[in-house]
Amino acid sequence: MTANLNNKILCDIYKGDKKEEMYLYVPKKIGQNELEDIPEALLQSFGELTLVTTLVLTESRKLARADIHKVMAELNETGFYLQMPPVKFPLDEQQK
User: Fold this and answer.
1) If DSSP states are collapsed to H, E and C, what string results for the chain?
2) Residue 17 belongs to a domain with what CATH number?
3) Taking the model in full, what pTM does it have?
4) 20-39, pLDDT tens digit by residue?
5) The domain containing residue 51 runs over which residues?
């Protein structure tokens, strides 16, 4: 059972030890292993996972580097959201 109540999603956020600033958002599943449906290749790309925090996501919540509507849509459609690290050298900066 996924914790999703009227456009609210209870979500665990994990980080791995292989790539800095890459995070995996997963809906909290009460009484289940919430990582069981995540593709194995994706889990391996993280290395050892550590729970960073648990959040209640709502459409009005602000996230630092992700669009809340996209995060919530991905959680509902695929069962996870992958937040990639920020680009260190944006292409438009390199082209100047």
Assistant:
1) CECECCCEEEEEEEECCCCCCCEEEEECECCCCCCCCCCHHHHHHHCCCEEEEEEEEECCCCCCCCCHHHHHHHHHHHCCEEECCCCCCCHHHHCC
2) 3.10.510.20
3) 0.81
4) 889 999 999 877 788 888 99
5) 8-86
